Amino acid sequence: MIIGYARVSTTDQNTTLQTDALTDAGVEKIYEETLSGTSKERPELTKCLDTLRQGDTLMVWRLDRLGRSLKDLVAIISELEERGIGFQSINEAIDTTTAGGKLIFHIFGSLAEFERSLIQERTKAGLAAARARGRKGGRPLALTEQQTKKAHAMLRDPTITKTEVAKHFNVTRATLNTSLKRVL
């Protein structure tokens, strides 16, 4: 069975162009959705994917109708492939039920993996460069070294509790404990 999925981003648009192309391509059932592609919750897509069985084919008008990103698209199509379900995109002429279509899809997957690796490398290089310039990432410390030393001095007085010291510096007891461990 060939099942189609059509999506538009706004209510001003309609799926007629997509559904006509899918019907002409032999789709037997079409799931339609009006929802931004960036939305994680796509109920019609979920229904569509749940309906598909081994030997079926999912068809879309264009790749961007299915995935929010290349990574998302590769994940969806990989899941379909694991379940023995084919995938076809009309505009891009991708058909994972053929050897050539599988090749194209795997090239896309490789490009997505390459892109993720490049992003990781750039992020690591940027963090290393920032550390070399003396910058540290992460959240700023709640208490300075000087404040932590004052807190430690205050805690030497047996009549003062950690809760009181934390309240004095406007932090939680957990934050005070973390600061004390860091400095002492």
From TrEMBL:
Record's keyword terms, sorted: DNA integration, DNA invertase, DNA recombination, DNA-binding
**What Pfam families does the entry give?**
HTH_7, Resolvase
This one is known as: DNA invertase Pin-like site-specific DNA recombinase
The reply to whether DNA-binding figures as a keyword in the UniProt entry is: yes
Domain Resolvase/invertase-type recombinase catalytic, first and last residues per copy: 1-134
- Entry's PANTHER family? DNA-INVERTASE FROM LAMBDOID PROPHAGE (PTHR30461), SERINE RECOMBINASE PINE-RELATED (PTHR30461:SF2)
- Family assignment from sequence similarity: Belongs to the site-specific recombinase resolvase family.
